[in-house]
Write a structure and sequence with these properties.
globular; alpha/beta; seven-stranded mixed β-sheet; binds NADPH dihydro-nicotinamide-adenine-dinucleotide phosphate
């Protein structure tokens, strides 16, 4: 089926005013690092340098933790919940007001399509702050005792796939419960966290309640290992999650880890094929597959295999890949050269192990980091592309004959973050959902998020829950 020809519809960049360089946000102010080191952040779609960002060293992390401690003891933890709520509501409103600017900035720095940053990421960011603002004066009704206490200073490290949304998942519940935070954004996507720092200033948030320290993995390590941090929250790779768990094990720190995934998206023969195909596409090609809960393993019942695969290939051929700021773009840029190298490497391994590779016919831009939507068929359980997280627009397809086989294959993974089930039988949905070892199970849909809904993993996907009432527990002394 030919693609419609669409005229370019680029979103204007003029709403974003980038500074040439950004300092660290400590104690309510932007300032330089003690040792003056800096790095550049680029647009992954064009490799254009967007800004220079300060790299926080140990002395800077120490200053940030000290500021957070002071704010915790003297201001924030002592403030009545209804007063903290006012700040959170104010932040939520400013995010909603500046939504377009934040969406453009996110797409520039991350490479994700503006349609996603505008319609998914930023609305969810605002929704998280609104939701947890509502909890701030009702904590005694959350089920954690009559007078639940905050924990103290939270050290939070987030990844690059949903930069501002992961910040919201971390900061909103922490602040609602009365904690203060030091947050490190990912090295490749620091700009929306720095815009958030400006929003804290705009909202007159007391100095030190939120501190943003930019830098690479070493800055993250220094933060989580700082003795002044009482609670660690991390989202990222299982490998780094394990390092953090080891470092925190001999301490009294409370830890929550949200790590990788290799979700099964299970399509039964009675599923409506067109809807399932949309769900498969949304499951693995949303955000270029840079999604921890992506439906990266498609399990299709053998009887409908060729029908589903034919529809899926036809649908993929209509996806538009290119400029993330174009409102017609479905698939944006891969976030970094390093991530692109990893996707290429695992795809080559897939071919070498005997799986068959098919990529959507699309032209890749010359500059920047790009990978076409790709499907591997003939994949077996033993293949690396069926076991390891590729974190890119690559789908591995396996088949099954019976529900029991589907279940066994779906659970045959070291991960357990999410899963999808497609069937018109409610009883089969419930049978699968109660046996799938996954934190989230979507039925006849995929990648649906809501601040009221808890999210988190089983097994190597981590521990602790974020979102909803359950998400409060991680930030309360219970
Ligand atoms: P990392 O786990 O390395 O990065 C996540 C965050 O942790 C970043 O802010 C990173 O900083 C920081 N960090 C790195 N090392 C340490 C450390 N020792 N102590 C504390 N913080 C640290 O993921 P990558 O960005 O390297 O991605 C690698 C793979 O991880 C991906 O290919 C994907 O498979 C998986 N991943 C999973 C995510 C998920 O949501 N489950 C999210 C991101 C990645 P910096 O950015 O500077 O490296």
């Amino acid at each position: 089926m030919p693609k419609f020809e669409y005229a370019p519809a680029p979103e204007s960049r003029s709403i974003v005013s980038l500074r040439e360089s950004y300092g660290l946000f400590i104690n309510g102010e932007f300032g330089p690092s003690v040792d003056g080191r800096a790095f550049k952040t680029i647009s992954p779609a064009t490799e254009e340098v967007l800004a220079e960002v300060t790299e926080a060293g140990p002395a800077d992390v120490d200053r940030a933790v000290t500021a957070a401690r002071k704010a915790y003891e003297h201001t924030w933890s002592a403030m009545p919940g209804r007063e903290r709520a006012k700040y959170l509501f104010r932040i939520a409103r400013i995010i909603a007001e500046r939504a377009r600017e934040l969406a453009v900035l996110e797409s520039l720095d991350n490479g994700k399509p503006i349609r996603e940053s505008r319609d998914v990421d930023i609305p969810l960011v605002a929704a998280h702050f609104f939701y947890y603002a509502g909890w701030a004066d009702k904590l005694e009704y959350a089920g954690y005792g009559p007078a639940p206490r905050p924990i103290g200073v939270a050290g939070q490290v987030i990844p690059w796939n949903f930069p501002l949304l992961m910040l919201a998942w971390k900061i909103a519940p922490a602040l609602a419960c009365g904690n203060t935070v030091v947050l490190k954004p990912a090295e490749t996507t620091p700009l929306t966290a720095l815009a958030f720092a400006e929003i804290c200033q705009q909202a007159d948030l007391p100095p030190g309640v939120v501190n943003i320290v930019t830098g690479a993995g070493e800055t993250g390590r220094t933060l989580v290992e700082h003795p002044g941090v009482d609670k660690v929250a991390f989202t990222g790779s299982t490998e780094v999650g394990k390092q953090i768990a080891r470092a925190c094990a001999p301490t009294r720190k409370k830890v929550t880890l949200e790590l990788g995934g290799k979700a099964a998206n299970v399509v039964f023969e009675d599923a409506p094929v067109d809807q399932a195909v949309e769900g498969i596409v949304n499951g693995i090609f949303f955000n270029q597959g840079h999604v921890c809960c992506a439906g990266s393993r498609l399990l299709v019942q053998e009887s409908v295999y060729s029908e589903v695969l034919t529809s899926l290939r036809r649908r993929l051929a209509t996806l538009r890949l290119g400029d993330p700021l174009d409102k017609n773009t479905d698939v944006g840029a891969i976030n970094s050269a390093a991530q692109l190298a990893k996707i290429r490497e695992l795809s080559e391994v897939g071919e070498a192990e005997g799986a068959e590779r098919w990529s959507a016919p699309c032209e890749l831009p010359v500059k920047g980091f790009w990978f076409p939507p790709t499907i591997f068929t003939g994949v077996s359980q033993a293949h690396r592309i069926a076991r390891e997280e590729i974190f890119g627009p690559v789908l591995s397809v396996l088949t099954f004959r019976t529900p029991a086989e589907a279940l066994e294959k779906a659970n045959n993974t070291p991960y357990g973050l999410s899963a999808g089930v497609w069937t018109e039988k409610g009883s089969l949905i419930l049978w699968m959902a109660s046996r799938l070892r996954a934190g989230v199970v979507w039925a006849n849909t995929f990648n649906k998020f809501d601040p009221t809904s808890p999210f988190g993993g089983y097994k190597e996907s981590g521990y602790g829950r974020e979102g909803g009432r359950h998400g409060l527990e991680a930030y309360l002394n219970v």
